[in-house]
Amino acid sequence: MKPVVRLGLRVFFRRLEVRHRERLRLPGPLMLCSNHPNTLMDPLVTAIQRHEPIAFLAKSTFFKNPILGAIMRSGNCIPIYRRQDAAGANAPSPAQLAASNEASFGRCYDYLERGGTVMIFPEGTSVSERRLRPLKTGAARIALGTEARHDFKLGLKLVCVGTNYFDPSRFRSDVLLNVAPPINVADYAERYHQDPEAAADALTEEITRRLTRRLVISRAADEDQLAQQVERTFGDHLNPDDDPTTLYDNFQLSRTLLDAVAWFAQHDPSRLAALRTALGTYLTSLGTHRLDDDDLDQTQRPGTRLADILNLGLGFPVWLYGVITNYLPYKIPAQVARRATKETEFIAAILLGVGIVTFPLAYAVEAAAVQHWLTHDWRLTALFLLSLPFAGFYALGYWQTLSARLRRIRVRWLPTATRTALQTQRATVLGLLDEAHAAYVNKRDVA
Fold it and tell me: In Å, how far are 223, 255, 354 from 265, measured between CA atoms?
């Protein structure tokens, strides 16, 4: 399934960037520790980076459904039993939970001793917010326990992976894997011999420190909301030297914005309140007119160059072909996700899982229909089949360019007073951002 999943992820994400990919490809035994913002997507985006199979620790509730449980087991998943998942009259006792987890730990030991790779999410739960919950010590205890069985001569390394989604539930969004240098577990041998629990706590603290340095972490929901609004609306203005070939610039901007918002909340709350009010007013006005901030910048007008005009005109039949052949498999995953869950951290996994089924199935049905009623020639049918994904991607790009062009035309058709008010609101927000940026930079220089 790995080639299928790899292809599915490359389609689902616009960019999937790995910083220090070579650290994910170290020879085993290897343990990978990651944050957990996006449920089943998190192990997948890491697993496709290694050629060798990976065993995953997953909460036991995933295994209760017979179908999902079979899929999880076939994917090298090992159940971990949490107290909060045990409820009801037939709930296992704490002793039974401990025994079950010891058995799971034993499977991890065996896997690592054979030179394998195990991935664990030490937060213990999936949280869609940009934060890192306190880590459980299970990862450290498994790593130390494995090495202790071999007198700390096994050579086990532990690698922390910071998984940063820039819009976790949206199709064609971006994700950055920020990989830390490996931890040599044998370095904790002396401490383990003195006090195993203290060694596990120390290793867990080191995992926390390395993950924190490689994640965008918010301190409060309102601060995170403001930072994301600023970044998504004025990211290009704040980071004009952004390198389009890497997501790391976006990662640094996100961290800087959150640090700045937290600093102003403590040292200059009136300035932050003024920015929040002005930005809220501006975004509400844009929403009323169904516009984006880019639409007011008439110096950048997609669809106005001769090549764009020819593309919009001559490309219309290709767009229509792409829509007709890809509409149903594109829409069905979104409808399934909308009905299946309200939890953000599950949406992307459902979109990907359903899309991996709907697109091949739809393409197979369409190819069979074309072969039976139109071509009667497998070579022509094969060409038709190959054209389907390319037509689908073209339709997406065509619609984005056309929509941007139509919105800019709509801006010019707005009443002069309305357009002036929007531009004034925009200028006010930009002015406040520039003043805040200067004040924050001056604060850092003084410090």
Answer: 9, 15, 43
